[in-house]
Design goal:
Elements (H helix, E strand, L loop, with lengths): L4 H9 L2 E6 L31 H6 L1 H17 L4 H12 L2 E6 L5 H5 L4 E3 L2 E8 L6 E3 L16 E5 L8 H13 L2 E5 L8 H10 L3 E6 L11 E4 L2 H13 L1
Parallel strand pairs: 1-2, 1-7, 2-3, 7-8, 8-9
Antiparallel strand pairs: 4-5, 4-6
The structure holds nicotinamide-adenine-dinucleotide and zinc ion.
Length: 243
Amino acid sequence: MKIPTELINYLKKASRVAVLTGAGISAESGLKTFRDSQDGHWAKYRPEDLATPEAFARDPKLVWDWYTMRRNKVAEASPNSGHFALVELERLIPHFTLITQNVDGYHRQAGSKNVLELHGNIQKVKCYDGCGVVEDWDEDDNIPRCPKCGAYLRPDVVWFGESLPLDALEKAHQATLESQAFLSIGTSGLVQPAASLAHTARQKGAIVAEINLDPTPLTPHVDFALHGKSGEILPQLVEEVWG
Ligand code: NAD
Ligand code: ZN
């Protein structure tokens, strides 16, 4: 892949960079996107019927088992060269913010520090009653109980119909407004409000680059569209800009 010289030269000078990642960056780890993951026993369910507060109220064990399956897949795989290239980027850029829609926790696991997880983390659980308890998810077939109030513990992810964590969202917005370069990586750009961040960056004068296997609805609006695997393009980018 030929990375445009203009992009390389721009990034060399940039001190404020914001990055948004989606399920695509974890595809090369072997984690499937939402829809592809519905195989075997789970094929008869739609994610929209499992990843909701209503679904958990109706049949907590069903939802718990589905997340256990997804969490096990995350635990069996690991971060890939795309995640590690972003760790490198954080080391090289003075003000670097990594905004992710992924729940796999791979950015932190790879070593990224300034990570904003907009959709939560599947490797954690929190109190269903909202008393504030958050814990690491221990291996458990049965739904664990909150040590403080006795309610069920549930996956610490944002479900359909729930609002995003306000603090992370505000920080993401701020980093986007201040960014000189904004990279949108492996996201279809359909899920709001993350989808609008790239447009916000552009309006404030940042250059916007997209790294994706395929064109997305964002593609016509970006300054640079790099089509290919993020696990190949990101290490190459790091090498060409800072190598
Ligand atoms: P998406 O599934 O809508 O889109 C994934 C994008 O990645 C697509 O545009 C695809 O072309 C691209 N892609 C696939 N393989 C790639 C590769 N190797 N390199 C670069 N790009 C590649 O994902 P989304 O935009 O993140 O939105 C889906 C929602 O599902 C999110 O809200 C997220 O929380 C959730 N989700 C998360 C995970 C995870 O944590 N790993 C997995 C599945 C779904
Ligand atoms: Zn509680």
